[in-house]
Amino acid sequence: MKIAFHDYPGHAFPVQLSRALAQRGHEVLHLHFDEFQSPKGPLAPRPDDPPGLHIRALSLGVRHRKYDLVRRWLQDRRYGALLADNRAGVPARRRARRQWAP
After folding, report:
1. What does DSSP say about strands 53-58 and 27-33: parallel, antiparallel, or unpaired?
2. How many CB atoms lie within 10 A of CB 72?
3. pLDDT in tens, the chain (102 residues)
4. Can you give 26-40 as a three-state secondary structure string?
5. Quick check: helix, strand or coil at residue 65?
6. Of 20, 22, 61, 74, which is least packed with CB atoms within 10 Å of its CB?
7. Alpha helices in 1-102 (DSSP H)
8. What pTM value is reported for the model?
């Protein structure tokens, strides 16, 4: 089974779950928001990672303004557009479709 797992902050438990699912033979694409400022889990590739695990950081290319309400809202909208395949996400979505084609 192919699973796309979106973990906005990049915390530890979700990436552990993605690794466990991949070890059970699933193809797992684990996505996280690179600039989100919070404690991160083990998102770097490991030598013992199963071949079906793919960890990708999604980036807006600017520091996330976590405590600036207006800028955070605007950045979160841009990030949502990236996930929803709006203008910012079209190239990434095309690459994902090629990689994850049935």
Report:
1. parallel
2. 13
3. 888 888 888 898 999 999 999 999 999 999 888 888 888 889 999 999 999 999 988 888 888 888 889 998 988 888 888 777 544 345 665 665 665 555
4. CEEEEEEECCCCCCC
5. coil
6. 61
7. 12-23, 69-83, 90-99
8. 0.75
Q: Of 61, 69, 46, nearest to 92 (Cα)? A: 61
Report the pLDDT value the prediction gives residue 96, as an integer from 0 to 100: 59
Token look-up 């906005």 returns 8
Contacts (Cβ under 8 Å, ≥6 apart) of 68: none
Question: Which burial class, exposed, middle or buried, applies to 99 when counting CB atoms under 10 A from its CB (0-12, 13-18, 19+)?
Answer: exposed
Q: How far, in Å, CA of 11 to CA of 34, rounded?
A: 11
Q: Are 29 and 97 in contact (CB under 8 A)?
A: no
